[in-house]
Amino acid sequence: MFLKKITLLHEEDKTKELYPFSIPSIQSMSELDITKSVTFFVGENGSGKSTLLEGIADLCGFNSAGGGRNNTYDVEASESVLSEHLRLSWMPKVTNGFFLRAESFYHFASHIDNLGPAVLESYGGKSLHEQSHGESFLSLFLNRFNGKAIYLLDEPEAALSPQRQLTFLRIMHDLVREENCQFIIATHSPIILGYPDATILSFDGGKIKETQYEMTEHYQITKYFLDHREKFLKDILED
Questions:
Q1: Residues 230/237, Cβ–Cβ less than 8 Å
Q2: Measured between alpha carbons, how far apart are the two ends of the chain, in Å?
Q3: CA distance 177 to 46
Q4: Which domains does the chain have, with CATH numbers?
């Protein structure tokens, strides 16, 4: 594990009405200690988890539209507005890694195509555009991800079926156990969240706080739906 702490700086300079400090979880943040090789960010849409992940990626030197330190291309509105207010504490610092941003992965795939066949070999030797969305994600995980690195993933489940989410869990487990990798993942997936011995940080309720798997809304709503599908649908669909 490499990244140990995330600190929000210059609190006295924050303008609470302006983004990103208008997000309650970011506004109330001081320090986050990272104690496990796998950390999950969870919360409702707009709760700040992706904003913080993008800030971390920017400070790592990764392209904030997605990629590593050597991936230079532009995507409109991909810049982090939080990174200048953050400090990362490392032991030791690593420069190897990758930021996966599901919403702009198409642009990343086009960037890799433009770099030519030699670079494509690092992604399985086949254009990411010539694979299904889920296949291209797994190709990235299997071929581009390797040892002694930090990986920041924003909603990796966006392209993965439930079965392939399980495949991703095994890939991640092997990278953590055998390749000395660290993961920070923003996700809505109760399958991915089930990874054992991970820290889950909830961004709901205006503060970032650690929670247990069974206490996440992702788990509770999914379990209730599966256990009481007919009643659940009747309650939300009938007046």
A1: no
A2: 51
A3: 33
A4: 3-237 (3.40.50)
